[in-house]
Amino acid sequence: MKIEYVDGNILKKSFIGAANCLEKNKEIVNALNVFPVPDGDTGTNMSLTMQSAIKQIRTLETDNIDKIVSAASNGSLMGARGNSGVILSQLFRGFAKELAGAEKINTSILANAFKAGSDTAYKAVMKPIEGTILTVARECAEMAINISKKETDIVEFMRLVIKHGEETLSKTPDMLPVLKQAGVVDAGGKGLIMILTGALEALTGKEETIIEETIARDDSLHTYTETDEDIKYGYCTEFIINNSSLESELFRDEIIGYGDSMLVVGGENIIKVHIHTNDPGEVLQKALQYGELIDIKIDNMRYQHRNNDFNDAATSNKEEVIMENKKYSFITVSMGEGLANVFKDLNVDYVIAGGQTMNPSTEDILNAVDNVKGENIIILPNNSNIILAATQAKELSSKRVEVLPTKTIPQGIAAVVAFDEELNIEENMENMKDAIEVVKTGQVTFSVRDTVIDEKEIKKDDIMGIYDGDIKIIGNDIQDVAFELVKTMVADENGLVTIFYGDEMTEDDAIELANKIEEELEDFDIEIINGGQPLYYYLISVE
Question: Which ranges carry the DhaL domain (predicted)?
Fold first, then answer.
């Protein structure tokens, strides 16, 4: 079967095939986590990002290539989860820009689009690392350029690109020592090969499987309520302006007087709008001047509030938190009710439910930014795999947003404790950066596979103590591993150990561990907090 040109209909099927292949194989990608910890989520993040792109594509009633790739770019941008998802969205962004205006695609055009995608992704990462998805994307793109000079059959072209991508993927352990130690190839690169393979399968006529949307959300960990009288603008209005060449900033200026809680972000030929207003009709009329409207959603917030009050009155005594205009607002990412309550007690405004096993998307973080009222908004990702999505949300928001690159929950807590409302934003950011540099974080979890790391032999279900990016302790007993881990973490200048126990541990377990630590470290203060976090028996902070 020879195909010399791809039209919009085939391209659409190829995107869907790519998403299907990744969804079916995401656990294979997840299993390639460098550490054998139970939170490998690269496959899940990339699949959810792809599903967001496909959701946008499915709204189209056209086979126009420009609109299809723009939908994929915008969908992946807003749905990007984790570092791998953000990089994937940038690959699509460059791909879409190169294909703008194309009526059909041959191997030469496709090769240039691959190259543009790779270039855009590299530019999006501050310090690109070879041996990752970036390397696989670049090598595929360079091979595509070479092949396209002679090969006109897109099917054969794709087979050769994928073959070279697989060869590059197999070499990633030689580029990144940490991959070689773990005995795995790069997970993001593997995910990209799955995407290309799925696209090829669709080209050759393999049966399409419909993917249902599986993006999980948990809004139970943040609280945002108002009294009926406090709702100044009663209608929460959301929509997308499709086919718009208008700059998002210009449209934001046009509707700024119609309400508050406004979020206007632009992508490839679309503008996503969220506003609380008393006149949604007028806002929609303004928007109609610039393009067709899709995904329109209008909620009467006063009505919802009255019903919620009535329904909750007999069953709930939830504390009411009224969001007011203020100088500073904090947004943090956390998993576990106990940890959420810790941040709430520290006056964090909005807790996004997420973390190791479910990274929030760029859109999730943007929604949080929209729901807080601070003149200065500080985001604490508390996970290295969420920092890129948080940074992307900052770039898309019209508000003044700062991202403090916290990589652990203890770092996030230390940052909030170091915050001083009397200082300006620059002074606070500096102080909080200093605070997160001195806090030490330990984690106690279990291994999900047999492996060898740093000449340590690890068996499936072994208990591991992790500190400073290394597996320090391996054993069979949770309490013993936690105790030995603390001993490796403490130094003469430290004086406080905080134990956050997870959802599989009890307070008695934590007290037993604390008593053992006190016997060993007589001059240390020991605190115990019910974190309720999944997968990690203990999170341990040393200061």
Answer: 9-201
pLDDT digits (tens, 9 = 90+) for 95-112: 999 999 999 999 999 999
Residues 388, 430: one domain? yes
Range from 224-228, 279-283, 497-501 that averages highest in pLDDT: 497-501
Q: Judging by DSSP bridges, how do beta strands 451-453 and 456-458 pair with one another?
A: antiparallel
CA 389 and chain centroid, separation:
5
Are 14 and 74 members of one domain? yes
3 domain-assigned = no
Q: What is the mean pLDDT of residues 457-476?
A: 92
Reading the block at residue 379, the tokens are 């985001």
Mean pLDDT of the chain: 85
Burial of 223 (C-beta count, 10 Å sphere; 0-12/13-18/19+)? middle
pLDDT tens digit sequence for 297-338: 887 766 655 554 444 433 333 333 445 578 999 999 998 888
In this structure, is residue 113 part of a structural domain? yes
Distances (CA, A) of 316 to 229, 319, 450: 21, 9, 47
Q: C-alpha distances in angstroms, 141 versus 106, 114, 118, 145?
A: 15, 5, 7, 6
CA nearest neighbour of 76 among 84, 85, 67: 85
308 strand-pairing partners: none
For range 289-303, the mean pLDDT: 80
Residues 350 and 492 in one domain: no
- The CA-to-CA distance between both ends of the chain, in Å, stands at 65
For residues 506 and 508, give the distance between their C-alpha atoms in angstroms, rounded to a whole number: 5
Distance CA 290, CA 251 (A): 9
Highest mean pLDDT among 39-48, 157-166, 263-272, 359-368: 157-166
Q: Which of 10, 9, 2 is nearest to 159 (CA)?
A: 2
Determine the distance from the C-alpha atom of residue 209 to the mean position of all C-alpha atoms in its chain, rounded to a whole number: 26
Residue ending a domain, among 413, 438, 463, is: 438
Q: What is the pLDDT of residue 498?
A: 92
Nearest alpha carbon to residue 416 among 483, 489, 331: 331
